[in-house]
## 1
Amino acid sequence: MIGLSSPSPAEVENLVVIFVGFALATFLYGLTFFQMYLYFSRYSNDLTRIKVLVGALFVLDTTSTCLVSGIVYYYLIEMFYVSMDVIYATPTFCIQGLFSVLIPLIAQVFFAGRLYTICGGPTTITSRSVRIVVLFCAFIAFVFGLISVGKSFQQRQLSSFALPSMVIIAGISQGFAAVANIIICIASCWSLRPARYPDIRKPEGVLPNPVVLIVNRGLGLVVIQLAYLGVFIASPGKPYWIAVQMAIPRIYANTVLGLLNSRQVRHGVGLNEEETFSDRHGSRNDGTPPALRFDHQSLKATQQSSSFSQQGESSRGSEIEEASKSYTDDQNLESIRSHCSA
């Protein structure tokens, strides 16, 4: 029988980090599955390209979660009797790192297209400039992320990320991703401000407002990407950043899915936030679907036209009554004259 010795603090630290990353990834994947089901059940007639995007994010997220499960199985089951003072990057671990840069790229490209629309479309220089800057930062982050993954395939020992060259490569990738997210958040908040869209439907209650800021405006991506960058720069030789890396792809995927599922639906098609308008006169939102809502001005005009028609009918009725009365008087006068002449 193999004797078991007490694990070292470094081994406990490595295994705890891997398990925490697995727990976060599994929880977030459950949210991805739920949001995917919610999307296809509500937006059955949505644009084909959006359906393809949702399907691709789900497939990539599922594959990434399976890889994370394989990593946990290898380190906690197969390598149970082996000392884990140093984590070695298995092929599964390196491929999982590839998904951690691919899914954020897809999400940032989606947000770049969204900014292109809400910032003014093809007619303004601002929309084109913002879109180009976001795409440039996302592309740089993706390229340096691929280089970082390639280096991990070569080095295999994750402590090698503490080398200056590895810190620079990974830091550039995460830094440009953070810059892209910051631009997305600022541009979204500025473009969808109430002064520009005074009639836009505003969320009611206390909870929806932070949710809109975190999901629809991309603030959650800014926070998680800055946290990832800070943890890695602070201790690149420690395994803490691994747990964040395992959760990163699912956070990006759920942010995109959350934005898509927050749209109002009409005939199976999603309406973007700027395409839904509230009553400028402060009428209460009763939760009626957009297709069944009545505009206050149209209702008022309808009531006025109805009252005018009623007034017209009553006036015509009075004219007919007066005419019949005058006709009766004329007949009475003729009969009196005939009697007098007789």
## 2
Amino acid sequence: MVCANSMGQHPTEFKDFGLCTVYSPFWANLLHTDIFLAFTPGLLHQLHKGIFKDHLVKWCLEIVGEAEMDAHFKAIPDFPDLWHFKQGISAVKQWTDTVYGIIHIPCMTTEHKQMQCVFVGLLAGAVPSQVLVVARAILEFFYSAQLRTHTSNTLQFLENALAVFHANKDILHKLEVREHFNSPKLHQLLHYDAYWASNKRDYEEQMALWLQCQEAVFLHSSYLE
């Protein structure tokens, strides 16, 4: 099947199994090249659109059900500067700033951020308490990660939130909404730690040097192997 697809025959099994053609990338044969080292933490694609939209929301929709989730969003009372999702969220296919007739400066994460403001509250009573702990831990990690500056206390809060998530995530497996947690976006949550390697003074330059050293160690280890 794979050989047939590579020859341009487009077997129907590829579509049936949701497979996509993967072509040989230009960097495949470059020495000491690991494409995963090029992936750096990003709030937009990793947290808001990745962990929240593609993981947490989908997990909770499967637990609660689309109709019940929509009902909770519709029931949220109006409040200044807080979006009211009058039609719920399950029917929204393309997230844009004008999806509910509200015009803002274009930002694909606006809806996600607005949903995050009320998400834990609307889950209360609709999901098992341990799922609520998971959702809260993820969102607390988000809010800490978005801070423009960090202290030892805020970074510890970041690590604590991630630890709470990992300590309670098995509930998703028990509820059969997640078979495993081997996801690149979930793994990347572990890599918000370069600040700890600095002496907390002129830390931006130290963080860059730390990342450079980590890459050098990795390349040397690859050479030795």
## 3
Amino acid sequence: MSASNATLNSDDDLTSPYNYTPTQSVTLIFLVLFAISTGSLLVWPLNTTVDFTFLVIALHLGQAIRFRIWWLLPTAVLAGIGETIGWVARYWSSRNVLNNNAFLMQITTTIISPTPLLAANFIIFARLSSMLGAQYSRLSPRWYSRIFLTCDIIALVIQAAGGGIASSADSVSTQNVGSNVMLAGIVFQLVSLVFFSALMAEFFLRFWISRPLRFAASSADGSSSTLVRGRQWNLKLKLAAFGLAFSSVLLFIRGVYRTIELADGWNGRIISTQVYFNVLDGAMVVLAMYTLNFFHPGVLLSDGGSSNVSGEDKYTDSKGSGITSEMAVSDDRESS
């Protein structure tokens, strides 16, 4: 028995669906962290004198109105609510570990809930790539949203279907079917995240070395105009890029863990070790949630308004004429 399974010290532990009893203090810590983060995603900074229930429920609308970022509601906020429900279920299990409903509630919600949070990353990167220059991106900002949000919705549907099968199962074999369906959804999500991360890394690399994928037509005298980016790589955009990259890494780690966990089976060593779940799932997701709190798009990506979502930011050449990002270029290749 590993040290992390030190809570396996009673008959209840040996027959629990977790193969351990969730530590009550840990469940409360994560419950409070997720509840606060979910509330602060909508009103930031928080008024600490506000009643806790009002904070968790009513103030979601507050920040959406304040920053006018309505897509946070079905993405980060929905993820936070789901995680809060999941940790409520784990707290329930810490008081009654043999309650199978609590176990199924927590495993379903904690598996599904980070999916909408990942969708927020896709939207943020589409906005960020639009502001920094769509010519450095292999896809247009619109297509990042269309492709990866579609993948995210598909992954969410698959995981939800698996969770529904598992939660309504009346036999171990049916429960295993639900587990395998959830595993398929997580693997699909993980693969889409890998592709997204690769495209994001390529974008920032090309931006950094000034090597765009698209070039403007030559001018009338046959020379190529060297364009200066209309938007500066300022501190706000650097912080937004760092927050996005950090959050993506956290969610990738969590996805790898969940894939191994479910592949290992309901009675495997991974799912039966509490510290793995607390660190590689709970901590990763809560850090990703707070990363969005502190590197908030309403603060860091507020400049420029919503008109640039299409990716058609303007760039200026050395003669002062305007050019959209669909035509923008970097330094002449021959000068490199």
